[in-house]
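Below is a filled-in request sheet from our internal design queue. Each sheet records the structural input a requester submitted and the sequence that came back. We keep these sheets so that new team members can see what a complete request looks like end to end.

REQUESTER: design group, bay 2
PRIORITY: normal
MODE: inverse folding
CHAIN LENGTH: 350
BACKBONE (tokenized):
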């Protein structure tokens, strides 16, 4: 069985056209979620109910919540969640029938994988879409190490066994789809499949707010960046204080002592901040504390070796060397903390 989930807010005839084109496709159950559209759109949803099951939100709750409503509905239909697949698509005509079936087929052929459509932004593509997707793509790759050409595509397919996990992923609006990639990418393969790049009437029907929704998308990464900056300031202040305190000893020894002691102070601060603010981790402190301690020792070793290396090759300004070292190790620390220390428990595979 295949389930197609389509969140819809203020849709037009393009939704009905898509539903009509999907009629007769084998083993395809279509679920449309009316995400609190005004009453003047009731006629669209009444017609949509001829081709699909239509679920309703009393008021607009966001694309992420609409998708979760569809996922919860599917889970209520069955007692088991195995050997079936879910596809998500947008209601604005950007996803063709051929591409919907294409991503589903790719998911069926690579079980346990989340398939996402990949648009290649060439030709006559609206500037906000080209720019937004390009920036997000590189930020996503930079912070996760996963290479996807398109991180904002709403056309995706995955096995129904993922549904309980996806319902727990944070996010109610457009940020939800990015959070899905961030969370699933830690535990399961993600594969991109090329699809058509379709923009109708300059993509005016999109409800994506370039600034407000982009802020939500980058918020999780931003929180870690803020935490890291504050921790760096703590580290740097103590580093400078210890350098002055040990000014009477050799530069080599002073550098090592100052770096080790300052890292102990900043690591304690960073762990507390990341556990409660960034990752909002609820695991026992002993469970994550020892893992963070091992990471802190590992980072400290790399940090000290890199400082000594920079000093050896002629960078005698120990303050500048410290800044360069912290910048180099920032992304390494982010990925280890996110993927191993504060990693959210993944659902058990059936």
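RETURNED SEQUENCE:
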């Amino acid at each position: 069985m295949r389930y197609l989930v389509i969140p819809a807010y203020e849709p037009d005839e393009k939704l009905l056209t898509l539903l009509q084109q999907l009629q007769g496709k084998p083993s395809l159950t279509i679920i449309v979620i009316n995400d609190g559209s005004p009453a003047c759109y009731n006629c669209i949803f009444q017609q949509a109910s001829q081709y699909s099951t239509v679920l309703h939100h009393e008021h607009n709750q966001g694309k992420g919540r609409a998708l979760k409503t569809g996922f919860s509905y599917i889970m209520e239909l069955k007692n088991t969640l195995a050997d079936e697949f879910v596809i998500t698509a947008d209601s604005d005509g950007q996803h063709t029938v051929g591409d919907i079936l294409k991503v589903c087929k790719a998911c069926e052929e690579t079980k346990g994988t989340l398939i996402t459509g990949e648009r290649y932004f060439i030709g006559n593509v609206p500037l906000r879409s080209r720019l937004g997707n390009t920036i997000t793509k590189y930020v996503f790759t930079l912070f996760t190490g996963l290479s996807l050409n398109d991180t904002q595509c709403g056309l995706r397919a995955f096995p129904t066994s993922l549904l309980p996990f996806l319902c727990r992923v944070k996010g109610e609006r457009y940020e939800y789809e990015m959070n899905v990639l961030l969370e699933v990418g830690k535990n399961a393969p993600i594969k991109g499949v090329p699809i058509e790049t379709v923009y109708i009437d300059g993509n005016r029907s999109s409800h994506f707010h370039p600034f407000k929704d982009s802020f939500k998308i980058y918020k999780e990464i931003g929180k870690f960046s803020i935490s890291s900056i504050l921790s760096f300031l703590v580290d740097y202040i103590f580093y400078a204080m210890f350098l002055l305190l040990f000014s009477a000893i050799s530069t080599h020894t002073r550098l090592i002592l100052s770096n080790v002691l300052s890292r102990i102070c900043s690591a304690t601060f960073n762990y507390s901040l990341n556990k409660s603010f960034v990752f909002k981790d609820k695991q026992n402190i002993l469970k994550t504390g020892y893992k963070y301690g091992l990471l802190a020792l590992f980072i400290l070793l790399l940090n000290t070796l890199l400082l000594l290396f920079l000093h050896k090759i002629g960078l005698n300004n120990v303050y500048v060397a410290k800044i360069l070292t912290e910048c180099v190790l920032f992304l390494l620390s982010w990925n280890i903390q996110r993927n191993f220390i504060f990693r959210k428990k993944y659902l058990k595979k059936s």
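SHEET NOTES:
- The chain has two domains: 2-209, 219-341.
- The first strand starts at residue 2 and ends at 8.
FILED BY: M.R.
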